[in-house]
Amino acid sequence: MPRILNDLKVPLDEDLAERLQWMEPDHGPFRILRQSVDARQRHSPHFVYSVEIAEAGETLKVEQFKLERTEISGSQERPIIVGSGPAGLFAALRLVERGIPCLLLERGSDSATRIKGISQYWRHGQLDRRNNVCYGEGGAGLYSDGKLITRIKSPHIPYVMNRLVQFGAPEEIQWLSNPHVGSDRIRRVIPKMREFLIANGCEIRFDTEVKSLLTEGKQVVGVKTEYGEDIRSPHVVLATGHSAEDMLLHLNDLG
Ligand SMILES: Cc1cc2nc3c(=O)[nH]c(=O)nc-3n(C[C@H](O)[C@H](O)[C@H](O)COP(=O)(O)OP(=O)(O)OC[C@H]3O[C@@H](n4cnc5c(N)ncnc54)[C@H](O)[C@@H]3O)c2cc1C
């Protein structure tokens, strides 16, 4: 049966595969679960690995993140997700993976159009209120360097990393202790994610700001867009991030 080797120290100039070959000459396939650098001793910094290793002739189980498909009963109104930052995109992903069609509304444009608004600001100081570093497909931070560091220990982290890799992020984000997608790469990941969402039942409307929530009593029953359209659904995921001051003020007004 595959075993986990923890706290495996390997000098920076040594190859992990060679080290494992030396330690266990007859081993089978292995997989890195975690890699970090211990540089506390200035003169001998080294990698620290956790590795899953199989015996010769064995295989490693590939982690599957397939979600059960859900049969929807009752309301046929699609869930609405407001905002296509990380929270909104992953909410949409979870829904379509369960076979639930949804509608994603984003005030900014797709990432290729969005960069024009951002360049305009960087070059000429002209702020595009729709497309900027905080608003537009991918949300805040899409035009940064894509560090994926979190202090929380959530069981959902492997799923998120797995999906980012599926859409083109480097594989090592699944095991590095300080994972980093890189500024160019993260901008290629998001359009792939969008294509997947659309192909699997998510309608995405860019340049569509949600102006207010529709409510009946204390119940949210849909949203009103900037074009005056009322879209009804009993399920609204508000993923507008912390830059959306207007939405926060609206929520405050709603009490
Ligand atoms: C410059 C910068 C660099 C960053 N770098 C990193 C990093 O390297 N690593 C890291 O972990 N975090 C980083 N962050 C923080 C990270 O980006 C945020 O924590 C994360 O984006 C929050 O995700 P979110 O989906 O909740 O909200 P957001 O990313 O803010 O997304 C909200 C989305 O909702 C849309 N929206 C808002 N209001 C409406 C509305 N009324 N109608 C329709 N759509 C609406 C917005 O256009 C936006 O696309 C960075 C942030 C910034 C600003």
Key attributes of the depicted protein:
255 residues, alpha/beta, Alpha-Beta Plaits, FAD/NAD(P)-binding domain, 2 domains, four-stranded parallel sheet, three-stranded antiparallel sheet, 10 strands, binds flavin-adenine dinucleotide
Helix content: 25-40%
Low-confidence stretches: none
* Broad structural category: alpha/beta
Look up the CATH topology of the largest domain. FAD/NAD(P)-binding domain
* CATH homologous superfamily designation of the largest domain: FAD/NAD(P)-binding domain
Secondary-structure element series: EHEEEHEHHHEEEEEH
Largest sheet: 4 strands, parallel
Rounded to the nearest angstrom, the distance between the terminal CA atoms is 56 Å
Shape: elongated
Strand content: 15-25%
What does this 3D model show about the protein?
The protein has about 260 residues and is an alpha/beta fold. It has 2 domains: about 5-55, 2-Layer Sandwich (Alpha-Beta Plaits); about 80-255, FAD/NAD(P)-binding domain, CATH 3.50.50.60. The chain has 6 helices and 10 strands, in the order E-H-E-E-E-H-E-H-H-H-E-E-E-E-E-H. It has helices at about 15-25, 85-95, 110-125, 155-165, 185-200, 245-255, and strands at about 5-10, 25-40, 45-55, 80, 100-105, 200-205, 210-215, 220-225, 230, 235-240. The strands form 3 sheets. The chain has a 4-stranded parallel β-sheet. Helix 2 (about 85-95) runs parallel beside helix 5 (about 185-200). The protein is elongated, with a radius of gyration of 22 Å. The chain binds flavin-adenine dinucleotide. Flavin-adenine dinucleotide binds near residues 83, 88, 209 and 247. Flavin-adenine dinucleotide binds near residues 136 and 210.
